[in-house]
Design a protein that fits this description.
With 330 residues, the chain is α/β, with parallel strands linked by helices. It contains 12 helices and 10 strands. The strands form 2 sheets. A 7-stranded mixed sheet has the order 3-2-1-4-8-6-9, with helices on both faces. Strands 5-10-7 form a 3-stranded mixed sheet. Strand 1, helix 1 and strand 2 form a beta-alpha-beta unit.
Amino acid sequence: MKINKSPLVSIVTIIFNPLKNGRKEFLIQCLESVRNQSYKNIEHLVIDGGSTDGTVDLLNEYEKNGWIKYITEKDNGIYDAMNKGVSLSKGKYVAFLNSDDYYHGRDGIKDSVFALEKSNAAFSYAPVLMLAEKGSSIYKNHPHLKPNIKNVYHTMPFCHQTMFIRKDALVKEGKFDARFRSAGDYDLVLRLCLKNYSSVFVNKTFVTFRLGGVSDENQTQSVKEVSESYYKNYKSLCNFNKNDAESIYCKNDIAIPLSLANKLKGNIYFEYDKYISDIDDMRKKFVYLKADRDFKERQLNEIYSSRSWKLMNFIKLIYKIITFKWIFSR
């Protein structure tokens, strides 16, 4: 297979009043990290939601130098803005880098493109570094640090900032569902995996993701939206209701109803045999625990019914009564 070493890549960054929100340094760090990539065939599209805080002046300077292209106009939320970026993009591959985030690895785009071209996959994903919104605390325990795409049917398997996707696949699948406020990226990944779009894992950490976005700020809203995505995508496959959707989020494969698992059998991202094995193990464990519990109950009944046990309890009771009276007679 002939590998195209330098197809055009479109990086989309959406913003709204970052200067007003004290995020000017984050935005500059984001823009500079794209400009400093070793891969050079990049267009960086900044979709501004109509900022009135001086952000446009900053964008003008970057555009004059040929480093970005931007539009500034009102939008209908995060994913509507992302969809605008997709529509404006000209690249074979599209990636979405939020204004608070940045590429700390200069070869990130190059490595991702090489993996995509070599594998002919529809999208790529990679590990991520996670920073606290304020300060420089690095999170060391999070699933996205060691992403496993096999978890896609019950949780977001990777950080979307590490994802590069073919534009034709993105457009064919209707881009992002703009009705979502925080779960649109997961909804897209879920739809891609349900349709068996191929993917490739880039085992290099080149993106730093800063916590503090919409999904982090409102966990209740995030869980609600993820459940809505489950319901929307699974109800056409089996008898799947909203209670099922709410019970799956961030659990594990065995939280998936058997009726859905049977429909996912053969999907490249669902380990059906492992699912059945885990269910069997859980059933055996439950039976074992129940038998163990019954055995202990029989033991206790035998002890309770023995004369020695009764006599010992009688002595303890007399001792407590005497001690109690002695304390209060002092």
